[in-house]
Structure prediction request, 285 residues.
Amino acid sequence: MTDNRINPPQHQDSMPGHEDQMTPAPIYIRPGYRGAGKLEGKVALITGGDSGIGRAVAVHFAQEGADVALVYLNEHEDAAKTVRLIEATGRRAVSIAGDVGDEAFCQQAVSQVVKDLGHLDVLINNAAEQHPQETVTDISAEQLQRTFQTNIFGQFYMVKAALPHLKEGSAIVNTTSVTHYKGSGGLLDYASTKGAIVAFTRSLSENLLPQGIRVNAVAPGPIWTPLIPSTFPADKVATFGADVPMKRPGQPAEVATCFVFLASEDSSYISGQVLHPNGGEIVNG
Prediction:
């Protein structure tokens, strides 16, 4: 993909943002992408699946033969469009609105997926939120709790709910972030949750490998998703991604193929690892 855009100034007032309000729209699948049946017959559940990276993963999974369930917070129009995109490939789609920070909701969502789609093979823990603050003293107890509740508690809850339905050959892929590896002075609580996700991924891998379930993660760099204009002021959005070696933000389509790889048998000898689609930044781990 050779898209070298730096995006115009823009801001959205509600989080986690809406893809249909972004200019230009994110690229969720590379033109000419052809699936190869890598996930044929699989059922995948994707949190934060309505837009951004989640939408791109959903569409790629459908192109590879999977039926897909989307869990999202309240972005109903984005979710409806993603459902249409999945169904256009000939695959089945389910969308479920709710808060992954609520363990009871996670249990209900997984039960609905299994009821509607028959089984569950792949869990993608992608839902997240972030709230920039200049100093640690600006982070309220409420914000700290909320960020951890969504970003890492939600992953625990979803794994606990999904595990009784997963079997040998199943895969779990968690979304972490380059901020874990580089740090982020303005996203202290967010970066901390992303570090927790890496530790969770490595530890869960050791825990589940005896059952034949692989667990890996993806650590995106600056990716053009609704979280960006809904989080940052317009002037910062206009320079978003310009500081990485590739001098541009990445597109969701450039991340989604990492999830395809880790969810499929192409990565059958890989577990407890992290892939880094981050525009050329060198990180350890």
Summary: The chain has a mean pLDDT of 93. The chain is about 40% helix and 10% strand.
